[in-house]
Amino acid sequence: MKISRFLWVSALFALIVLLVVPAIAQEEATGGIIIENTFGGDPETLNPLLANDVTSQNLVNFMYPGLLGVDPSQAVIVPRSEAADEFKAGYLVENWDISDDGLVYTFNMRQDYFWSDGTPVTTADIAYAWEAIQAGAEGIADVPAAFVIDFIDNVEIVDDDTFRVTFNQPTCTALSYAASLGAPLAPSHALGPVETLNDDPFNLNPTVVGGIFSFGEFRAGEQVSLLANTEYPDGNVLPTGYILRLVPDAIVQVEQFLAGEVTFIDNPTVGRRVDIRAAAEASDVQVYDYPSNLWDYFAMNLADPNNPQPATDENGNPIDQGHHPIFGDVRVRQAIAKAIDVDAIISAAVFGEADRMTSFIIPVSWAYHEDLAPIVFDPASASAMLEEAGWIDDDNNPATPRVAQGAMYAEDGTLMQFSLFTNEGNARRTTASTVIQDQLAQIGIDVNFQTIDFNVLIDLRNAQTFDAVLMGWQNGYPDDPDVTQLFTSVADVPAAGANFTSYNNPRFDELNRMANNATETNNCDNAAREEMYREMQAIFQEDLPYVPLYSQRGMYAAQANMNNFNPYPSQLFWNAASWSLDTP
Predict the structure, then answer these.
(1) Helix, strand or coil for residue 165?
(2) Is the dihedral angle over the CA atoms 167, 171, 177, 178 positive or is it negative?
(3) Residues 314, 520, 493, CA angle at the centre, nearest 5°?
(4) Pairing, β 213-219 against β 162-167
(5) How far apart are CA 284 and CA 217, in angstroms?
(6) Is the peptide bond before 248 cis (omega within 30 degrees of 0)?
(7) Neighbours of 449 (CB within 10 A)
(8) How do residues 356-399 score in pLDDT, each as one tens digit?
(9) Over the stretch 234-284, which tens digit does the pLDDT of each residue have?
(10) Would you give the DSSP letter of residue 152?
(11) Taking the CB of residue 104, how many other CB atoms lie within 10 A of it?
(12) Which H or E run includes 59?
C-alpha cells in the first residue's frame, strides 16, 4: 500500500504493461496509478452483493456507489441533501422520512446518477438487491446481507426514485440495515436472475460500474487492476488507475511501502510502525494515527464440536447443542481468562500499539463501560478454579496437562488439551497465540497451536468444529454496539451465523434487543441505551465466550508524493477520487 519516489517511474511503466487494457480515455485522470498491497488473499468476488471478505469489500467500494452517506468528520449517517459538499460524492439517497411508529422509512433517491453504460440508477436496483437478500436467506445465493431479513419485513418500490423499507420493530440500527440494500449497490441490469448469482460471470469480470474505478484485470495470486471510471457521475477522478497487489505476509507489505513500491499502507503491522514513523520524521512519508475499530479475541467453542447444531429449530425451539468437554464449563473459561496476561500480549504482539479490551465493546465507543475493570492476571487463582472445576494436577507437575476428575462435561482421565488456530501470515496474532500457549502451559493446559490458511480458518470457525481460535473483528462504520449478529441465538447457525461459539444467555439477548429498540430506549437516546450495554458488558465478562484481548490502534501512511491524503478514523478512502501523485 505505498510507493517511493525513486521507484515511481519504473513502477508506473510496469503497471501500464501489466494492465493490458485500452489507454485511459478520461483526459482529467492524470493523477498517476495508486498502488496498494495486501496479504489477505485474492478477492473472492467483485460483485457487491456477494462481497464478504475485506479484500473484496474494499474493491467493490471503489467500483460501485453507496446507498446512504456517512459524514466521516462525525462518523454518522446523514442525508445527502444535508451533507457538506465534500461528503456528497458517490451516495444515492438524498433524504428520508420516518413514520410515527418508527417502522417505515421512505427513501428518496437522487435522479442524476448513472451506471458507466449510461443506464440510470433507479429503485429497480434496490428491488434486485432485496430479491438477492431474500435469495440469500433461503440459501439460494451467498449474499452476506441476508441477515437483514430478520429485521426488514418488506421493501416496497414506490416509483423510480422512491422506495419504502418496513422494519419488524422500531430499531436504532434501522439506517444501517437499510444501507445493506446498497452497501454498495449493484447494477441489476447487468446481472442475471438471483438464482444464478453465485455463478454469474460478472462476479470476477464486472462490465458495468458506478464508482470511481472500473474493472481492468484480475490475476489470481498476483493483483487486481482498476482504471479511472471515465463516466463517474460525481466529478473527475484524478487517479489514472489503482492496483492491489498480493504479498505473502505483513512484513513484506511494510518492506514494499518503505521501499516506495506502493503508494499507501492501511494499518501496517505494529512491529514495523517505528520504521514508518522514522520515515515520516525524515519527510519521506505521511502518517495518520487514530483509534481503530479493529480488535482481537481468543474465542472458545462452548458447544460440542463433534456435532454442531443451531441454537433453535425453525419454530424457535431450543436445540440441544451439547457441551465442549473443556470450555462448556464457565469456571474453566474464567480460569483461562485469569491465566492470560493481556498486558504482556499487548507488549509482545502489538508493541504497545493497542488498548486493552474489557468486554465486547471497543474503548472508543460511546457505549464503552469505563467502570468495568479488566480481569486481573492471577495464575494461582486460575489453578485453584481449575481444581474446583474437576481438572486436577494428578502428578504435581504443572508442565504436564491436567486430567479430568469429576469435570462437568469431560470423562475422567481426559487430558486438558485443545487446539488453537489463527491465520498464517499474521505476525501479531501468531505472537499473541504463542504467548497464550506458553501462559496456559504454566497452569497445566496443553495448547496445540497452529496457523492455517485464512479461508480454511474461516470455514473451520463458521462450521463450529473448532476448539479455540484467535482472530479479530473490524466493527462496522459508523460503529454501533448492537451485537445481534455476533452473540445472540439468532446468529448461532453452523456455517451461516457469526455466533460460532454458540453463546446463549437469555438476559444478554433481551438487553441487546431492548437497547436496539427505538421505543424502549426513548427513540434511540444513547444515554438509555448505554445503561443496557453496560449491563451486557458485565454479563459478557462473566460468561466469557471470548476472552477479549485488545483494540489495536490504527495507522494510515502514504508516500510523501501523494496529494490529498486526508483520512479520518476508519475512513481512508472517502476522498480517493481526488488523490494524485507528484512524479518526476
Answers:
(1) strand
(2) positive
(3) 25
(4) unpaired
(5) 31
(6) no
(7) 18
(8) 999 999 988 889 999 999 999 999 999 999 999 999 999 999 88
(9) 999 999 999 999 999 999 999 999 999 999 999 998 889 999 999 999 999
(10) E
(11) 18
(12) helix 54-63
Residue 69, class by beta-carbon neighbours within 10 Å (0-12 exposed, 13-18 middle, 19+ buried)? buried
Residue 158 has phi, psi (to 5 degrees) of -85, -50
CB 493 within 8 A of CB 150: no
Burial status of residue 192 (CB atoms within 10 A of its CB: 0-12, 13-18, 19 or more):
exposed
Q: Which residue has cell 429485521? A: 151
Closest of 383, 357, 378 to residue 552, by C-alpha? 357
Q: Are 241 and 19 in contact (CB under 8 A)?
A: yes
Cβ within 8 Å of residue 17, ≥6 positions away:
none
Half-sphere exposure of 229 (CA within 13 A, CB side): 28
What cell was used for 195? 438464482
Cβ atoms < 10 Å from Cβ of 583: 14
Query: What does pTM read for this prediction?
Result: 0.73
> To 5 degrees, how large is the angle CA 455–CA 460–CA 465?
180
Backbone φ and ψ of 437, nearest 5°: -55, -45
Lookup result for grid cell 454479563: 539
Mean pLDDT of 38-65: 94
Interatomic CA distance for residues 344 and 336, integer angstroms: 15
Q: Where are the alpha helices (DSSP H) in 220-261?
A: 250-258
State whether residue 502 is helix, strand or coil: coil
Angstrom distance (rounded) from CA 3 to CA 226: 17
Q: Of 34, 54, 32, which Cα lies nearest the Cα of 45?
A: 54
How many alpha carbons lie under 13 Å from residue 406 in its C-beta half-sphere? 8
Q: Is the peptide bond before 548 cis (omega within 30 degrees of 0)?
A: no
Q: Residue type at 529? A: R
What is the per-residue burial (b if ≥16 Cβ within 10 Å, else e) of 31-58? bbbbbbbbbbbbbbbbbbbbbebebbbb
Cell readout for 378 is 492471577
Cell of 85: 459538499
Distances (CA, A) of 118 to 65, 186, 202, 337, 340: 14, 14, 18, 57, 58
Tell me the C-alpha distance between 276 and 271, whole Å.
10
* Cβ atoms of residues 516 and 352 within 8 Å: no
Half-sphere exposure (CA, 13 Å, Cβ side) for 1? 25
Phi, psi of 58 (to 5 degrees): -65, -40
Do 7 and 263 touch, CB atoms closer than 8 A? no
Confirm if 254 and 268 have CB atoms less than 8 A apart: yes
Could you tell me if 467 and 418 are in contact, meaning their C-beta atoms sit under 8 angstroms apart?
A: yes
Residue 103 and residue 165 in contact, taking contact as beta carbons nearer than 8 Å: no
Q: Write out the three cell numbers for 573.
A: 478512502
Q: Which residues contact 458 (CB under 8 A, 6 or more apart)?
A: none
From the CB of residue 203, how many other CB atoms can be counted at a distance below 10 Å? 19
